Amino acid sequence: MKTVNLKEDFGLEVLRHSTSHIMAQAVKRIFPEAKLGIGPSIKNGFYYDFGIDGALLSENLAQVEKEMRKIIKENLLFEKELVTKEKAIEVFRKRKEPYKVQLLGGIEDEKVTLYRQGEFVDLCRGPHLESTGKVSFFRLLSLAGAYWRGKEGNPMLTRIYGTSFYTEKELEEYLEQIEEAKKRDHRRLGRELELFSISSDLGAGLIIYHPKGAMLREIIESFEKEEHLKRGYQLVRSPHISRSVLWKKSGHLDFYRKNMYLFSSGNEEYVIKPMNCPAHMLVYESKVRSYRDLPLKYFELGTVYRREESGVLHGLFRVRGFTQDDAHIFCMPSQLVEEVRKVVQFAIFMMDAFDLGYQMTLSTRPAEFIGSPEHWEKATQALRDALGAEGLDFQVAQGEGAFYGPKIDIQMEDTLGRLWQGPTIQVDFNLPERFNLRYVAPDGEKKRVVMIHRVVLGTIERFLGVLIEHVGGAFPPWLSPVQVKILTVTEKENSFAESLHGQMVNEGLRSEMDLRNKLLGFKVREAELEKIPCMLIIGQLEAKKGLVTVRKRNGENLKNIEPQRFIQMVKEAVREKRTEI
RNA sequence: GCCGACGUAGCUCAAUGGCAGAGCAGCUGAUUCGUAAUCAGCAGGUUGUAGGUUCAAAUCCUAUCGUCGGCUCCA
């Protein structure tokens, strides 16, 4: 089974890569001055980059598609040619392809392969299909800017994204899938379910929570607080603003300034906190600490503000004001492995509690770093050991660690398959140094404390976004802002409905009533669209007997239920965190 | 920040230089009804904002704010 799948994927890669060459050929026919960048196949399709100085616009995509169909009809052979690097450089110099020449400069091998189809030549490892005629079901999807070789200082090329399949059915299904994903988009559901909104008057990247979204947050936050207390964390709190001297001391003013909101008051410069760590350092620093006190774990749902570049803002996933479930763990070097391991377990516990999938990355020492290489080696090994002890699969991102220490990142997927970083566990050699954080060891000597900086959901905002998309807005009862909606058949049952509502609210259930003079079918439809876990249908039958009919959001009915029994059912579903009542 | 696209009623979308419109939502009335839309009527707008071109601008131009898809950066 597995090998067949691999083959198919490989086949798709070849198809898509070949389609990207056809696209490049079409673009060159229409815009002979376009310079070729690179054109690989990617997860769900392919792209090709062109240096064309903005002459290629989205209105040209249809034209490019048309030319591609012509090339496919011409059924040109993909011809492979093995040449020396010098020969290849000469070919592309003649064809005025500076990016290809640059690429060749970076290749170590003596021989490279060229692929030709008709008048088009590309530097390419291959493999390709036999001929352009083998491609038929493709679609150009979007246009985007992309820096040459992904470096900000380089020229901006124009990138065309597209996809390609062997059958029309698969292409249609893929396009359909994208449409379906849009319905689960948290930005759309956030509005439809009245969870949150963003207002340009308030400011880009700043979230306002509406009653249902605020309730959802409250549920998640109180769950988190409890779980932290169970694990020996202590709650701390710090103000939103602080004097800039604190940030001078922490180093943020130098390294992080462009992301910080600063303001002055009198002669004093102030900072709106972009992080919680410096304040937590001050808590540690406030008295002499003994090795007997360690590990110390300070937890704060800390709301921070960062001046993010306008182009990166994205719904709840990338914002300027957000709340981290932030904690700082101070320990002795000998406790590091154990503490990291506990945090890894905690993060996984949280992911599991919300039924979310994830992937892990270990990021190691970057080119520029502070602290000694031995410390780095030990800390990186501690992270590796913690992951190993839990039997977790992880990728290693060489040199991707922060300048102040190695880290473990946990990424979560959104509905379109994009990855977003959630939980992160970072060892920090920098701040304990800058704040001179020490503890008194058994021998009476003062020693440098080791610090772990960690979040287990990441930020409440991003996490909520992922959660909304994961459940498609249909929250499990324990999280659902409204758990029950009482629907009356006619206004005659309103008083019974009101007494039921009072009873449930008293028992701590989140209940709403729909007493409007509307048809039952209409009320059911609305409650279904609100994705409320269950409805109570109250007509004459129920009112007379003092019982309720439960309609779950999947359409299933439970008849003649005692109100108290129903309340217990909901409580049980909440306690067990079941997805449905 | 950069590249491209977009911004019309609460929402989804029409109106291609010549009278700003529809459906849903909202409001009012009728209907008292059993599991995804009862019927009728009414109201809703400085076309994101500011400037410009024109006899005339939602439409063309400039700036600005915001949104979307990417790039870079990041939780």
Automatic annotation (TrEMBL):
<dbReference type="GO" id="GO:0004829">
    <property type="term" value="F:threonine-tRNA ligase activity"/>
</dbReference>
<dbReference type="InterPro" id="IPR012947">
    <property type="entry name" value="tRNA_SAD"/>
</dbReference>
<keyword id="KW-0694">RNA-binding</keyword>
<comment type="subunit">
    <text>Homodimer.</text>
</comment>
<keyword id="KW-0963">Cytoplasm</keyword>
<keyword id="KW-0479">Metal-binding</keyword>
<keyword id="KW-0547">Nucleotide-binding</keyword>
<keyword id="KW-0820">tRNA-binding</keyword>
<dbReference type="InterPro" id="IPR002320">
    <property type="entry name" value="Thr-tRNA-ligase_IIa"/>
</dbReference>
<keyword id="KW-0862">Zinc</keyword>
<keyword id="KW-0030">Aminoacyl-tRNA synthetase</keyword>
<dbReference type="InterPro" id="IPR002314">
    <property type="entry name" value="aa-tRNA-synt_IIb"/>
</dbReference>
<dbReference type="InterPro" id="IPR033728">
    <property type="entry name" value="ThrRS_core"/>
</dbReference>
<dbReference type="GO" id="GO:0000049">
    <property type="term" value="F:tRNA binding"/>
</dbReference>
<comment type="similarity">
    <text>Belongs to the class-II aminoacyl-tRNA synthetase family.</text>
</comment>
<dbReference type="Pfam" id="PF03129">
    <property type="entry name" value="HGTP_anticodon"/>
</dbReference>
<feature type="binding site">
    <location>
        <position position="277"/>
    </location>
    <ligand>
        <name>Zn(2+)</name>
    </ligand>
</feature>
<protein>
    <recommendedName>
        <fullName>Threonine--tRNA ligase</fullName>
        <ecNumber>6.1.1.3</ecNumber>
    </recommendedName>
</protein>
<feature type="domain" description="Aminoacyl-transfer RNA synthetases class-II family profile">
    <location>
        <begin position="185"/>
        <end position="476"/>
    </location>
</feature>
<dbReference type="GO" id="GO:0005524">
    <property type="term" value="F:ATP binding"/>
</dbReference>
<dbReference type="InterPro" id="IPR018163">
    <property type="entry name" value="Thr/Ala-tRNA-synth_IIc_edit"/>
</dbReference>
<dbReference type="InterPro" id="IPR006195">
    <property type="entry name" value="aa-tRNA-synth_II"/>
</dbReference>
<keyword id="KW-0648">Protein biosynthesis</keyword>
<dbReference type="InterPro" id="IPR045864">
    <property type="entry name" value="aa-tRNA-synth_II/BPL/LPL"/>
</dbReference>
<dbReference type="GO" id="GO:0005737">
    <property type="term" value="C:cytoplasm"/>
</dbReference>
<dbReference type="InterPro" id="IPR036621">
    <property type="entry name" value="Anticodon-bd_dom_sf"/>
</dbReference>
<feature type="binding site">
    <location>
        <position position="453"/>
    </location>
    <ligand>
        <name>Zn(2+)</name>
    </ligand>
</feature>
<feature type="binding site">
    <location>
        <position position="328"/>
    </location>
    <ligand>
        <name>Zn(2+)</name>
    </ligand>
</feature>
<dbReference type="InterPro" id="IPR047246">
    <property type="entry name" value="ThrRS_anticodon"/>
</dbReference>
<dbReference type="Pfam" id="PF00587">
    <property type="entry name" value="tRNA-synt_2b"/>
</dbReference>
<dbReference type="InterPro" id="IPR004154">
    <property type="entry name" value="Anticodon-bd"/>
</dbReference>
<dbReference type="Pfam" id="PF07973">
    <property type="entry name" value="tRNA_SAD"/>
</dbReference>
<dbReference type="GO" id="GO:0006435">
    <property type="term" value="P:threonyl-tRNA aminoacylation"/>
</dbReference>
<dbReference type="GO" id="GO:0046872">
    <property type="term" value="F:metal ion binding"/>
</dbReference>
<feature type="region of interest" description="Catalytic">
    <location>
        <begin position="185"/>
        <end position="476"/>
    </location>
</feature>
<keyword id="KW-0436">Ligase</keyword>
<keyword id="KW-0067">ATP-binding</keyword>
